[in-house]
């Protein structure tokens, strides 16, 4: 399988992976803080605070807000990496069917990923 013109796409895939790694590290920190916050809320409830008292005085970001934002962020970073990786594989002359097998998704899903990438790159 050729390497030729895929080098810049490989770099984009590497950059997307680096961004995903940074996002994962940030996620670990944020989820650790959310877990500590959850412990505080549990303790308040066990000491007799009402749910209204707990919810109305919880400091932002709320535990659920943190979880929602982390999932959204990881989804976006993961999708970008998958697109860039699929494009890099295609530039190495890997078939769409084989990329689907490697990613454990349908051939149609790979086609959609690659079409989205091509549309984004057009002027």
Roughly how many Å is the radius of gyration?
21 Å
Give, in order, the helices and strands. HHHHH
Shape: elongated
The number of helical elements comes to: 5
Please state roughly what percent of the residues sit in beta strands, choosing from under 5%, 5-15%, 15-25%, 25-35%, 35-45% or over 45%: under 5%
The SS-based structural class is mainly alpha
Biggest sheet statistics: none
pLDDT averaged over residues: 89
Count the beta strands.
0
Poorly predicted tracts of residues: 1-6
Structural domain tally: 1
Cα separation of the termini: 29 Å
Share in helix: over 70%
Protein name: Sigma-70-like protein
Organism: Pseudonocardia zijingensis
Layout of secondary structure:
Elements: H1 7-46, H2 51-57, H3 63-91, H4 96-103, H5 107-121
Helix pairs in contact: 1-3, 3-5, 4-5
Summarize it.
This is Sigma-70-like protein. The protein is mainly α.
Summarize the structure in words.
- This protein has 5 helices and no strands.
- Helix 1 (7-46) runs antiparallel to helix 3 (63-91) and helix 4 crosses helix 5 (107-121).
- The protein has one domain (4-121).
- The longest helix is centred in the N-terminal third of the chain and has 40 residues, at 7-46.
- The chain is mainly alpha-helical and 123 residues long.
- The radius of gyration is 21 Å and the shape is elongated.
State the main characteristics:
123 residues; mainly alpha; 5 helices; disordered N terminus
